[in-house]
Design brief:
Order of helices and strands: HHHHHHHHH
Shape: globular
Strand content: under 5%
Number of helices: 9
Number of domains: 1
Distance between the termini: 18 Å
Length: 207
């Protein structure tokens, strides 16, 4: 199938698996196993005894972010990051000003890169993971390592923010079809996408 536009490319990524036939590796699936898992944990007051994200789901996330580390290498540090850096503020993200959310976003990407990921592409992988873990925050993921060659994530972020603001009027404003998960999981993702501009950022990074 020939894809003729950035929307077609993004919609294809959203609907179709990128890792064999594993539906979790579609854009919808990735958002569900990342953000959806944390949102369900938050609704349970973070009382889950199991890791917030299962080893199997984490393996899919790392594969799709082209990380070199395994779930076994980062799962303990990732759980600590979630507990120390995300858990307390999770319910407050939507109430913050944009400038506050921007500052938190940049800090979280840098913290995730330095405290959890021990690889040369840590900033790229961290930004892609946080894009899926915290879609409430205005994360702009680094797609290629060369995109931040010689610059900080903050500098990259500010460039992307400016470009996204210019592109936003031309990006689709409707909610995409939610196809992954049970009815509760789909409802979590639908409410998220109706509440912020994550879908538009998803379209933007595929443009």
């Amino acid at each position: 199938m020939k894809l003729n536009s950035s929307f077609d490319i993004a919609a294809n990524h959203w609907q179709n698996p990128s890792r064999n036939s594993d539906a979790r590796s579609s854009g919808n699936g990735l958002l569900c196993i990342a953000y959806g898992s944390l949102e369900k944990a938050a609704r349970n007051h973070w009382n889950d005894e199991q890791p917030f994200i299962s080893d199997s789901d984490l393996a899919v996330l790392l594969h799709c972010c082209k990380a070199t580390q395994s779930p076994e290498e980062i799962k303990s540090a990732l759980n600590t990051f979630i507990q120390n850096s995300l858990q307390d503020d999770w319910a407050e993200y939507d109430d913050l000003t944009h400038s506050q959310r921007q500052k938190i976003t940049i800090n979280l990407v840098n913290t995730l890169a330095s405290s959890v990921l021990k690889e040369s592409a840590a900033t790229r992988v961290a930004s892609q993971l946080l894009f899926l873990l915290c879609p409430q925050l205005p994360v702009f993921p680094v797609i290629h390592d060369k995109d931040i060659d010689g610059i900080s994530y903050q500098e990259f972020y500010l460039q992307q923010k400016q470009n996204f603001t210019l592109a936003l009027p031309s990006l689709d404003q409707s909610c995409p079809l939610i196809h992954y998960g049970d009815s509760n999981e789909q409802d979590i993702i639908r409410k998220l996408l109706q509440a912020n501009n994550w879908w538009q950022r998803y379209l933007f990074i595929h443009s």
